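Team,

Forwarding the record for the chain on the shared tracking sheet. I've put the sequence and predicted structure together so nobody has to dig through attachments.
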Amino acid sequence: MNGFRVLLGKELREAWHTRRLPMVALLFLVLGLISPLTAKYLPDIMRAALGDQLTIPLPPAVAADAVAQIQKNLGQMGALAAIALAMGAIAGELDRGTAALVLAQPVSRPVFLGAKLIAITLVLGIATVFSVAIAWIYTALLFEPMPVSGWAALALLDWLALSAWMSLTFLASAATGSATAAAGLGFVAWVGLSIAAVVPTVDRLLPTGLTEPAYRIAAGLTADMDTGRLVTAVAGTLVVIALAVGGAIVAFGRRELR
């Protein structure tokens, strides 16, 4: 455990010094900032731009629209950021030859992987909380204050979904030893599972299934929410993460280090 704490501290310091944490936090800050602004002013912009050509009347923007917008932005740009964070996690160490140097110390391979995984997860968690907090503040200013507990659940569920995409890319990084290949495979996994989620019964078991419950909780629309869908989506996402992490441990354990 001492080795794990040392490696975790090393990973977190590197995340700061290499600007990964500040850059991801900045990206998520922008997402949190523009989401309620887009929800508030996009209908007005469309009316002004299209004028009489806009044949469908647009309803006035409400706070729930800001929830939907932050969900959309985190689900897209946030997922790409998660893939980018994980793609070089193992491959970069292998390319530089530092993995062999670290593992020459009394540190096991699962501990080596675990420290990296937890560090990336923490970076994603910090950035997600930052983004959702900024979005909540601007939603309160532009619309109305909404229950903090619902938005806290939104941040938790979005972070869990992003961790799943990160874990799949982490597996690809450990299996291929190439950051480029890991990014490609992580992107394909994200797109492929998102397409598979078009089938409702499949969506309930995937990270994509967290989107609807998270939206309803944050928007205060829990009266008719399917709690079973939330439970199965959380369980399915945890299974995806566990399988990806287990696969990464097996793949990295079989890799010859140089």
